[in-house]
Design a protein that fits this description.
By secondary structure, the chain is of the alpha/beta class. The protein is 33% helix and 27% strand. It is globular.
Length: 263
């Protein structure tokens, strides 16, 4: 295990709260290079707020977050953005832009406030578009994309940022099954190359397939963290989702399904 002061990302005794309710209490997490962590829980249990807190965009109620051994408070936002990328659940396009121009925003932490993108930056952005299957759309208006295509463009933008840590809030949102698998395989490849990934997911079976570890958030302060195979069980998931969950044997492993009557 990598020490917290030399990990890609770590938090100690982290508390995430909203008025009148503590969602996450005393979270200790060390994210190592080459680690893929899935975050699971019902709606409203603090998954997004935890990611925002780890990204330094929300002040924790207590505890600290370290990026590459330094507390976020020590770092400028430009420094954080060179090492850490956040994919939000959804994005709004406030100004007209092409798909390529939108994806090039991911280079801004490397370019600086007064700089311009270079030919090298454009090559990085074009390569990211190709990775998500949008290279033919580079010159299209971003507003003309479908929901799934816009999601893939947002993923291309964080790839263009080239961080060491990816925080992905529902990266498979709006994607069909083919593109869900392609996107998660893409980030699994980044993990193999030494990056670190935290992804909130609603599909337990995708988490079981791609994540090495899982973090379960119950929304009342409690959490469970551990290797995927040991954390994902019928009893834990039934409590987590407040519905019976059954583990069904399939191709030498288990898939999880909500159990109970249909009517």
């Amino acid at each position: 295990m990598v020490a917290a002061d030399s990990a890609a990302l770590a938090c100690r005794d982290l508390a995430v709260a909203v008025p009148g309710r503590r969602l996450v209490d005393g979270l200790d997490l060390v994210l190592e290079p080459g680690d893929f962590l899935a975050v699971l829980g019902r709606n409203g249990t603090g998954k997004t707020l935890t990611l925002l807190t780890l990204a330094g965009l929300r002040v924790p109620q207590s505890g600290e977050v370290r990026l590459q051994g330094r507390t976020l408070a020590e770092l400028k936002r430009s420094q954080i953005a060179r090492e850490l990328a956040l994919l939000p659940q959804s994005v709004d396009d406030a100004f007209p832009a092409t798909v390529l121009e939108t994806v090039l925003v991911g280079r801004h932490p490397h370019v600086g406030p007064l700089g311009w993108e270079t030919a090298g930056d454009r090559r990085i952005a074009c390569r990211a578009l190709d990775r998500v299957g949008l290279a033919p759309f580079a010159d299209r208006d971003i507003a003309t994309l479908s929901g799934g295509e816009r999601r893939r463009a947002a993923i291309a933008q964080v790839l263009t940022q080239e961080p060491q840590v990816y925080l992905l809030d529902e990266p498979t949102n709006h994607l069909d099954p083919q593109h869900q698998l392609e996107v998660l395989r893409l980030f699994a490849g980044k993990v193999r190359d030494g990056a670190a990934v935290i992804a909130t997911l609603h599909d337990v079976n995708l988490a079981a397939r791609f994540a090495q570890r899982c973090l379960l958030l119950y929304g009342d302060g409690r959490w469970a963290l551990g290797p995927t195979a040991s954390v994902l069980s019928e009893s834990r998931l039934s409590e987590l989702y407040a519905v019976p969950m059954a583990a069904v044997p399939w191709r030498g492993r288990h898939v999880f399904m909500p159990d109970g009557p249909s009517l």
